[in-house]
Amino acid sequence: MTPHGRGPILLSRYLALAWLALLVYGSLHPFTGWRDTGLTPLAFLEGGWPRYWTAFDLLINVALYLPLGFFTTLAMCRLPGSYTGAILATLIAAGVSFGLETLQTWLPARVPSNLDLACNSLGGLVGVIAGQLTGPRLINRLIALEHRLIAPVPHAELGMTLLGLWLLIQFSPETLLFGSGDLRYLLGFSGAVPFAAESFVMIEASIVAFNAVAVGLIVRHLCARLSVAYLVVPLFLLLCLAINTLAAAILVGPGEAFAWLTPGARLGLPVGGLVLLVALALPATPRLMLIALALMATTVLVNLAPPNPYSAAALAAWRQGHFLNFNGLTRLAGTLWPFLTLPYLLVSTRRH
């Protein structure tokens, strides 16, 4: 944990950088087909109102840049001058959107739009205003909570950033519940295990249980006391399930809200919960070893698992709803998460 109350500032910087990386990926995905379209890079600024648009698409474009403006404002709230951080954060959000829209000129699969630029900039501005209005009070409260709830472990802010990315992954209803580390779509190979109902249930249950244990123990690693962990860990896992439910209901359909509650999930969740009940009380070193083993095991299982029958239907619904960009963003976060978390475990063990 960073001394002298700088933890929340550092956490804001990590979150701003992480969100920026995700925006870049989501805006330029799939990164293929680059070519000269014959248009000038700034031609989109003179374009008229798009022929096809929905109010929901506009709201998404606003919402995607709101966190960037908010986190960047908090990250720079200690700069000299009352409004220096807010002005810089506004310019950064608008500049990022402008740069990404310009780059889309060379991607035939993407259509740069001045309306997108306006919505993104508006979202950044709304985030900046929220950060400017709530920043000082929020930072002070976070500093107080940091001293009461967060353990004095190295790079605790990185751990909290990884947990934030984990929450983002839960917005992808096409993946297995708590599934992460799936390299197959990047490397172009399929699961090694042929689909069979019984084996799929066991693989899915194992993935759910291993990831529940790993994530729960990471939360425990960041908690100052065991009593805090026994309260925060279940709440965090319930939040993950709530996000899965909400994402499926909004992005796929209300009737699919609880599609994640498969036979494998119904088996894996209680098993993971029982393991956590004991593992939370373990000393730090065994806990960290168990996290690493669980992450490695679940990554292997995710890549061996047969295709998820629900995945194709969910992705088809996303295509109809124009959520391919968001899908690419959440899938990237899910793919990289265990490979980012394992190095974090190494740097966080320096005092153990």
Topology summary:
Blueprint lengths: L6 H22 L26 H21 L8 H20 L10 H36 L6 H14 L14 H4 L9 H26 L3 H27 L10 H17 L4 H21 L4 H12 L3 H24 L5
Helix pairs in contact: 1-2, 1-3, 1-5, 1-12, 2-3, 2-4, 3-4, 5-7, 5-12, 7-8, 7-9, 7-10
Mean pLDDT: 83
> Roughly what fraction of the amino acids lie in strands?
under 5%
Terminus-to-terminus distance = 14 Å
Please report the number of helical segments.
12
| Shape, principal axes of CA atoms | globular
- In total, the number of domains comes to 2
Give the SSE string.
HHHHHHHHHHHH
Radius of gyration: 21 Å
Uncertain residue segments: none
Helix content: 55-70%
Q: Please describe the biggest sheet, giving its number of strands, its sense, and whether it closes into a barrel.
A: none
Compute the number of strand runs: 0
Coarse structural class: mainly alpha
Identify the notable features of this structure and list them briefly.
352 residues, mainly alpha
Task: Outline the structure in words.
The protein is mainly alpha-helical and 352 residues long. It has twelve helices and no strands. It has helices spanning 7-28, 55-75, 84-103, 114-149, 156-169, 184-187, 197-222, 226-252, 263-279, 284-304, 309-320, 324-347. Helix 1 packs antiparallel against helix 12 (324-347) and helix 2 packs across helix 4 (114-149). The longest helix is centred in the middle third of the chain and has 36 residues, at 114-149. The chain is globular, with a radius of gyration of 21 Å.
Quick recap of the structure?
With 352 residues, the chain is mainly α. Helices cover 69% and strands 0% of the residues.
